[in-house]
Amino acid sequence: MKVASHQLRCTECSAGIAPEAAAADFRCPLCGGLYEVIYPWSSTADQTSTRTSGTVMPDVRLPNPSALRWLWQERRTSTMAVDQSGVWRFRDLLPILSNPESPITLREGNTPLYDLPRSAKALGLDFLLAKHQGIGNPTGSFKDTGMTAALSVALERGFEWVACASTGNTSAAMAAYAARAGLRSIVLIPEGKIAWGKLSQSMDYGAITLQLRTDFDGCVRILNELIRRLPIFLLNSVNPYRAEGQKTPTFELVEQLEWQLPEHVIVPGGNLANGAALGKGFREMRELGLIPRVPKISVIQAEGANPLIRSMIENGGETLIPVVADTRASAIRIGSPASFRKAVQTIRSTGGWMAQVSEQEIALAKAEIGAEGIGCEPASAATLAGLKKLVASGRVTPEERVVLILTGHTLKDPEYTIDYHRGTLLRDDELATATPADLNLHTALRKPPTVLDADTDAVLRTVESVLQTPVPA
Ligand SMILES: Cc1ncc(COP(=O)(O)O)c(C=O)c1O
Ligand SMILES: [Zn+2]
Question: How many CA atoms lie within 13 A of 192 on its CB side?
Fold first, then answer.
């Protein structure tokens, strides 16, 4: 039997498979489930069939928790790219490469953790932080952490072509890392339904960009046909190596909190891979004795793209009920999420929640995050909007320490922000759903640009009139 540093394990039926033996669509041939990467030290390694996988994993002993913490800290002072990366600095916990010292890296990760004092106060919470995956990551979204991992695997396996279907951020990240690796990339995006910032990135990084007259789910269907016919490495989030990179913000987060754990982490949900990846990161840290427990992981969807919520309500999450997705938070406009089962498992096993939020609630939350000097793209703001609901329903209590994962940079979708501040984003019927307090907040937060003649008196008059309006608390 071949010895490998890791195996793939079906998250549905637990069958193991050798890394190179996975089908091009990364689906289990026995049950159609998705894979996750397991290591000799994973708790699930024992339940996984080595007979079906044809590989054995060596009996690897990891350094003890304090040695690992020390090693990760030491690497911060190194000038090597692999150490400066906020993903590969933790490479001991993602040994997926034969040559772990030279991944395809753009110094991803190392993302900031901000407090949100005004939002915390408004919600009556003592502790509210935002881990901003849109800041620090080279293409401005959390997808970079997964792409550095999966693209490095593609290169090691000798692929020349990579491809993804995307609502925009995956394609931006894939195009950048593929260019870096010298590989060719094909992007399938829904025509007219992705933010300009993201579309411009995939062109900038030299991808073959195909805008299909369909939605994201339609792009996925075409992509599955393509990979059946051509030797292409699939880089959608069904690729289990993406999760290996996307789990690393959990390591960073606990380091930033000096190994204090929050009670609750909240993510926006689209294809539903990110929450599951973060859950894996926390779970592995607990298994290795780095942390004592796993925080709750909650997932927030837009009302118009809510297959997770609908399926949970209608059948307890047993089967996916796809929807025709529609939301201005284009990153999460996904009706048939590939990682539905993984997300259900993550929410259940961590004791997390889910919530759905309206277009009006997302727009308000985004403006509030902007007014804290941070900003984010609309999908990311769903986290704050969802938190408000979880607080209102008593599911989050005031002493709970909450971390929102902000997934994308505010400049990804400037059109949305401009429309909001000009007052052209929300329809009257959408605004009519806001409470009087929220309507006041919208009024206070909206800052439309004023066009004036280049005349000092006119400018002074405008500034004086603005000075008379109260600043929101
Ligand atoms: C900014 C942003 N937030 C959230 C998501 C949703 O992540 P996931 O598809 O892993 O649920 C995406 C996915 O494209 C995204 O781009
Ligand atoms: Zn299976």
Answer: 4
Token pair, residue 405, equals: 């994962």
- Please report, as a single letter, which amino acid is at residue 451: V
* pLDDT tens for each residue of 401-421: 999 999 999 999 999 999 999
How far apart CA 37 and CA 56 sit, in angstroms, is: 14
Locate the ligand 1 atom nearest the alpha carbon of residue 408 and give its number: 1
Q: CATH assignment of 113-137+248-445, given 3.60.130.10, 3.40.50.620, 3.30.450.20, 3.40.50.1100?
A: 3.40.50.1100
Looking at the DSSP bridge assignments, the partners of residue 300 are: 268, 355
**What residues does ligand 1 touch, defined as CB less than 6 Å away?**
141, 167, 169-170, 237, 268-274, 331-332, 377, 379-380, 407-408
Helices (H) and strands (E) in the chain, counts: 19, 15
In DSSP notation, 301-355 reads EEGGG-HHHHHHHHHTTSS--------S-GGG--SS-TTHHHHHHHHHHHT--EE
**Residue 155 in tokens:** 């290169």
For residue 247, how far is its CA from the centre of ligand 1 (angstroms)? 14
Residue 313, phi then psi, degrees to nearest 5: -70, -45
Q: 233-281: per-residue pLDDT in tens?
A: 999 999 999 999 999 999 999 999 999 999 999 999 999 999 999 999 9
Contacts of 411 (CB under 8 A, 6+ apart): 140, 197
C-alpha to C-alpha distance for 178 and 189, rounded to whole angstroms? 17
Domain positions in the chain are 1-61, 113-137+248-445
